[in-house]
Design brief:
alpha/beta, Rossmann fold, 4-stranded parallel β-sheet, 13 helices, 10 strands
Length: 300
């Protein structure tokens, strides 16, 4: 009990210091400076590039800071406590970079940490991918399959979000633990990946789903494989497009749209920069310059 009290006390102290830091950081810059600040986007790896590409498409005037926590991927098999701590560290670092908004381009983080960190980082607009994805899914069908990481599936975040919007919708969630490692290993078109995908999709096809949600931002990269295995009648939902539409509305509401020419995207990783640069080239169309970042970053 004493240990738990000490932990809670230390955690509360950390939150007070952090909130004070963010209030000071944001109050010290003008609205003009805030508008020119980048949008922060983070994921465990290359999955968040699906959100980044949507930002390039829908909000081309915005500057972006992209972070991939590649030293600690995959997130989908981590505990809730680990995910919350990782997200705190990333948001603290992004706050130091003066981002004006953060998009959690990671379904696992959105499912397990969004509400907690929103309460802690009160001066920083933070968007998750699950609610925007759920809103799009219910517009597409009534028999909805969700493929996700084990942590996201266990949280029931998609099922709860979908059925809160449409209680008549039926939802089936399938954990797909092998997908992220296969994508990060650049094995998308490996026959083994197709075999694994077929096994994951089988129980959803047995339920005659009419809609399939990419419940992990990495999975959009598997669309050529998944499309071949699914009936043409099944609609695919990519929450990346939905969360960027939500981000645009939020920026408009807050008066934070960038009125000037955007800066080049800054890329940073916690793991090996060269590995990330090589892997991401196929989706970005260029080889990014990638910074190595060491987390955690202390809040002072």
């Amino acid at each position: 009990m004493m240990g738990a009290l000490v932990y809670q006390s230390k955690n509360s102290c950390f939150n007070i210091i952090k909130q004070s830091y963010f209030r000071s950081a944001f109050s010290s810059i003008s609205m003009r400076e805030s508008q020119l600040s980048p949008i922060g986007v983070f994921d465990s790896g290359v999955g968040g590039l699906t959100v980044l590409r949507e930002l390039y498409k829908q909000l081309p005037q915005e500057s972006i800071l992209y972070f991939a926590d590649t030293a600690r991927l995959p997130y989908g098999t981590r505990s809730k406590g680990e995910i919350i701590e990782f997200v705190r560290e990333i948001l603290t670092w992004m706050g130091e970079r003066r981002v004006k908004m953060v998009i959690m381009a990671c379904n696992t983080s959105s499912a397990l940490a969004l509400e907690e960190v929103r309460a802690e980082f009160k001066d920083l607009p933070i968007l998750g991918v699950i609610l925007p994805g759920a809103k799009t899914a219910v517009k597409q069908g009534k028999r909805i399959g969700v493929i996700s990481t084990p942590a996201t599936a266990k949280s029931n975040a998609y099922k709860q979000a979908i059925q809160e919007i449409d209680p008549t919708a039926q939802v089936w969630q399938i954990p797909c633990p092998e997908f992220v490692p296969l994508i990060e290993a650049n094995r998308i078109f490996d026959p083994y990946t197709t075999q694994v995908a077929r096994e994951y999709l089988q129980p959803l096809l047995a339920e005659n789903i009419d809609t399939l949600v990419y419940g992990c931002t990495h999975y959009r990269h598997l669309s050529p494989v998944l499309r071949r295995l699914l009936p043409s009648s099944v609609r695919l939902v990519d929450p990346a497009a939905s969360v960027v539409r939500a981000a645009e509305k939020e920026l408009e509401l807050l008066g934070l749209k960038n009125p000037e020419t955007p800066l080049p995207t800054n890329f940073a990783v916690s793991g090996d920069p060269d590995t990330f640069a090589r892997l991401s080239r196929q989706w970005l169309g260029f080889s990014p310059t990638v910074e190595k970042v060491y987390l955690p970053v202390p809040v002072l």
